[in-house]
Amino acid sequence: xxxxxxxxxxxxxxxxxxxxxxxxxxxxxxxxxxxxxxxxxxxxxxxxxxxxxxxxxxxxxxxxxxxxxxxxxxxxxxxxxxxxxxxxxxxxxxxxxxxxxxxxxxxxxxxxxxxxxxxxxxxxxxxxxxxxxxxxxxxxxxxxxxxxxxxxxxxxxxxxxxxxxxxxxxxxxxxxxxxxxxxxxxxxxxxxxxxxxxxxxxxxxxxxxxxxxxxxxxxxxxxxxxxxxxxxxxxxxxxxxxxxxxxxxxxxxxxxxxxxxxxxxxxxxxxxxxxxxxxxxxxxxxxxxxxxxxxxxxxxxxxxxxxxxxxxxxxxxxxxxxxxxxxxxxxxxxxxxxxxxxxxxxxxxxxxxxxxxxxxxxxxxxxxxxxxxxxxxxxxxxxxxxxxxxxxxxxxxxxxxxxxxxxxxxxxxxxxxxxxxxxxxxxxxxxxx
Length: 433
Fold this sequence. Notes:
Belongs to the DedA family. The protein is mainly α. It folds into two domains: about 5-180, no CATH class; about 200-430, no CATH class. About 80% of the residues lie in helices and about 0% in strands. It contains 16 helices and two strands. The chain has helices at about 5-25, 30-45, 50-80, 90-110, 115-125, 130-155, 160-190, 195-205, 220-245, 250-260, 265-275, 280-295, 300-325, 345-360, 365-390, 395-430; strands at about 330, 335-340. Strands 1-2 form a two-stranded antiparallel sheet. Strand 1 and strand 2 (about 335-340) form a beta hairpin. Helix 15 runs antiparallel to helix 16 (about 395-430).
């Protein structure tokens, strides 16, 4: 086994560049580990952070360029001649070529996080004759992001890196695989768009007879269905992990990263972030949403009742869940906190901010404003959660659970509101006729 620390001390930035270069070419070298060790040296002051990233990025750029030109030079005749040995014939190659022409460039960005995939994408892009300029934009950007992320993780984790490396690496692999699955889902959706939409519309028509009349909010409803499915899946997974007591590593790593990134100098800002999870933000937001509904809403009474139901129901749901799971929380100032799962603050923040944003955006058509409000909600919820971890009053898994359970509650009520709104409109139409 190679002693990376000795090699790094002796050859420094040149070794980083060479190791990344060879690893991407498919040589059996632990590139992720090498980059993380580099970050550890940056933490210890033995190497420069920027120069380390540039050195590793240069090695990645050279390697992915070479692999592309090797594939380009070999071309399809090589695959036709030898591809049968790996069950890759001319017909399969033609399909891969079409797929790579459409979506291969985007896959390059996430391929670095999936073991094995980053070693072959360059060759395949060359074989399929992807334009080099298009290839370079995604491949170079993804390579720079990959080396920057792992070196920065090593720098942030510092001496704790060896203890946390396997956990962090596992989450990076999950991220890569999840991104790839998302890309594949998007590909199949584009390919079978009409069929998917037809099936989805049939399903929705069972609950809403005239779905097409939803007009401008159709996308919001469809997005809510997708988010509900995502949040329910995450919720079931979190409950399973909770029952199996599998949160310890996640909590330890996440807490360490938060405290490493936000040091003691962030005390004043964290107090402000914590206030975002209180009535000081929720009160004015609820009042603003209510006034907006009175001014712009078509179903004013229904929307106001739902706003009240979601806010109060969210509080009841939160209390019930925390009593159900009855999880002992962290020890803060010598006091053992209890019933911290899920986080009351993050569940409430995503419930109040998320549903209020939906009601506000439903009556506003400008895309830029919608994006700004959406990003604002994400930022507020994220800052509230970070403050809980920073002050050690909740575990990171408590915070994450608050987001997930709150997401289920909000998306479920968004869908229910639109169904009731549609039924109410249908009744009004029947009475008018």
